[in-house]
Write a structure and sequence with these properties.
The structure is a single chain. The chain is α+β, with helices and mostly antiparallel strands. 26% of the residues lie in helices and 36% in strands. The chain folds into 2 domains: 7-191, BirA Bifunctional Protein, domain 2; 199-240, SH3 type barrels (Roll), CATH 2.30.30.100. It has helices spanning 17-27, 72-94, 153-157, 163-179, 184-191, and strands at residues 7-14, 34-41, 59-67, 98-101, 105-108, 111-123, 126-136, 199-204, 207-216, 222-226, 229-233, 237-240. It binds biotinyl-5-AMP. Residues 16-18, 41, 44-48, 50, 52-54, 61-63, 105, 112, 115-117, 132-134, 136, 146, 150 line the site of biotinyl-5-AMP.
């Protein structure tokens, strides 16, 4: 770890590093910031109660805990900053054409290599941010049905990667980006995203529709055009359609 400010907690196995982080905030003295990393998650979490496949030793399954002290606007920027941080770090390290997909997935050639889950916990009138990051690093294959939608650095490069080096680089870039948080991060996010200008399928609960993704609004919404009208989306899953 390059930055001694962060307290590192390394676990062999845990249900979810985000859940562990939440308990830590509630129980501990909160002299963070913390980085929690697990070799294996038995119930890694995605959004909406979905599972995140986290096989032992194959990826970076981690959560960062920070005292928030942020406005709503800064929370939106933070969300974009996390995916920009991971994407820039992995691009620099691997030279792979990684791209961002709203709200905060990282893809290579349309396949997901990283998912991010940001949560908050309140304690004594303070808000703590739990930033969960899952990166597929050394998997050689994925179980069905993930085999058609997921990829890893190993699959893309045929090279075994050291997750500690990746962790160290992410934390140092995260520190920089976090200290310089501004609306400019949305511009950076857009420049790393391959989705704007493309047709997408949007899934919101039971509701599915097609639209064109045109922009990211200042408030973090995905702006789409649908039947000649502009709409802002605040939640949902988006699939990019190949033109
Ligand atoms: C996410 O959710 O992409 C957020 C994932 C965050 C995982 C990290 S790991 C460390 C920290 N601790 C946790 O417990 N969580 C965080 P979502 O957009 O809902 O995507 C979930 C969907 O991605 C699943 O329903 C699967 O379809 C797919 N998926 C599951 N495991 C995957 C994997 N390892 N690689 C790629 N896709 C996966």
């Amino acid at each position: 770890m390059p930055d001694s400010n962060y307290k590192l907690i390394q676990l062999e196995e845990v249900d979810s590093t985000n859940e562990y982080a939440k308990k830590l905030v509630v129980q501990e003295d909160n002299r963070g910031p913390y980085v929690i990393i697990a070799d294996h998650q038995t119930r890694g979490k995605g959004r909406l109660g979905r599972l995140w496949e986290s096989p032992r030793g194959m990826g970076l399954w981690m959560s960062i805990i920070l005292k928030s002290g942020r406005s709503h606007e800064e929370m939106v920027w933070t969300n974009f900053m996390v995916s920009v941080t991971v994407c820039e770090t992995l691009r620099e390290l691997t030279r792979l054409p990684l791209e961002l997909k709203w709200p905060n997935d990282i893809l290579i050639n349309g396949k997901k290599i990283c998912g991010i889950l940001m949560e908050t916990v309140n304690k004594n009138r303070e808000v703590f941010l739990i930033i969960g990051i899952g990166i597929n690093i050394n998997q050689q294959n994925f179980p069905e049905p993930l085999d058609s939608t997921a990829t890893s650095l190993f699959i893309e490069t045929q090279t075994v990667w050291d997750r500690w080096i990746i962790l160290a680089k992410i934390i140092s870039r995260f520190d920089d980006n976090n200290a310089n948080l501004s609306p400019e991060i949305i511009t950076r996010w857009k420049s790393l995203s391959g989705m704007l200008g493309h047709r997408v399928t949007v899934v919101q609960g039971n509701h599915t529709f097609e639209a064109i993704a045109t922009d990211i609004a200042k408030d973090g919404a995905l702006v789409v055009e649908r039947n000649g009208r502009t709409e802002k989306l605040y939640a949902g899953d988006v699939h990019i359609l190949v033109n």
